[in-house]
Design a protein that fits this description.
This protein is mainly alpha-helical and about 325 residues long. Helices cover about 85% and strands about 0% of the residues.
Length: about 325
């Protein structure tokens, strides 16, 4: 009777997951405010850069097969979840900042979490059924517990991956902020005004961080706002404190070019020293990890060599 109850509970959980997935795949009807917010977020993201010829051809070509249908289903689920998050007022501040750094949509990330959780949730009952068909004796409580553990893991692992990827991108952005500060100081020394120096410094390369800064500055010019306001908003959106500090320094010293040059040069030197300290710290951590791995290998090798002699001594004793 206990096995029957566990089997029914597992089937109910799986059926509930399928019902939730089917309900989420219903075509969403976003409001005008949601569509405007989505368009504004897309305009600020790095995805508005020009697609390559291969990507354009791939997007224009018709897609067929199971993979294409699954991709369309996931895209519909992402749209539905994005609309749901906007209508329910889910802030997700840290997650949205990480997604903004990576240039990804909120709905896409939520759909990844839901799909990964459901697939791993359904994986355990399927594996249990296959093993039982092959004659492997397994208790009836294994599918439910394994499904819950795997489903939770599939739901949480995308968050960990997002945090790690966003932290790497922010580290790159901090380096770019230091270089950008040096370029602005050099442009100011060449006689340019502050807005022109900022835009010119952001236009020296098509690296993704400079592209984000250049887009923010261009948008501020079209909207009639100051460049440091745009940089401050970009720093808050991406959760990059160095860019927000730079915007605050520019706002305080906007009327004195000499002070701005000295402040930017000092800030760039500070960012370089901080970045060098971070690199040295990472190198030290990797060296310690290698040392621990070597000690473990040496210890295992010594145990391997000493085990026969110790075993013989204990056997004779």
């Amino acid at each position: 009777m206990n096995h029957v109850t566990l089997a029914l509970a597992t089937g109910a959980v799986a059926a509930l997951g399928l019902v939730v997935l089917c309900a989420a795949l219903i075509s969403p009807r976003p409001s005008v405010a949601v569509q405007v917010a989505r368009h504004d977020a897309l305009r600020r993201s790095t995805r508005r850069t020009v697609l390559s010829a291969a990507e354009a051809a791939a997007s224009a070509a018709p897609e067929r097969g199971f993979s294409a249908g699954f991709a369309r289903a996931v895209a519909r689920l992402a749209d539905r979840l994005e609309v749901l998050a906007s209508e329910r007022g889910w802030r997700l501040r840290r997650t949205r900042a990480d997604l903004a750094v990576l240039g990804r949509r909120t709905g896409e990330f939520l759909a990844t979490k839901v799909v990964a959780g459901l697939l791993l949730l359904l994986l355990a009952p399927v594996c249990w059924f296959v093993l039982r068909m092959w004659g492997v004796p397994l208790p009836g409580g294994v599918p439910l517990s394994a499904a819950l553990v795997l489903g939770a893991a599939g739901y949480l692992v995308p968050d960990l991956a997002l945090r790690a990827d966003a932290e790497r991108r922010r580290r790159d952005f901090r380096r770019v902020v230091g270089v950008f500060s040096d370029l602005v100081a050099m442009n100011l020394a060449g006689g340019r005004g502050l807005p022109e120096a900022l835009l010119s410094s952001a236009s020296v390369s098509d690296y993704w961080a400079l592209v984000r800064i250049r887009q923010a500055l261009s948008g501020a010019r079209l909207a009639g706002r100051t460049p440091w306001q745009a940089l401050g908003e970009l720093g808050e959106e991406l959760a990059v404190a160095e860019l927000s500090d730079l915007a605050g320094a520019l706002a305080l010293a906007a009327d004195d070019g000499a002070k701005i040059r000295a402040s930017l040069a000092a800030r760039a030197a500070t960012l370089r020293r901080k970045d060098m300290a971070d690199v040295e710290g990472d190198a030290g951590e990797k060296s310690q990890s290698m040392l621990v791995a070597q000690l473990v290998l040496c210890t295992a090798f010594m145990v391997f060599l000493a085990f026969p002699a110790v075993h013989n001594l204990l056997a004779t004793a």
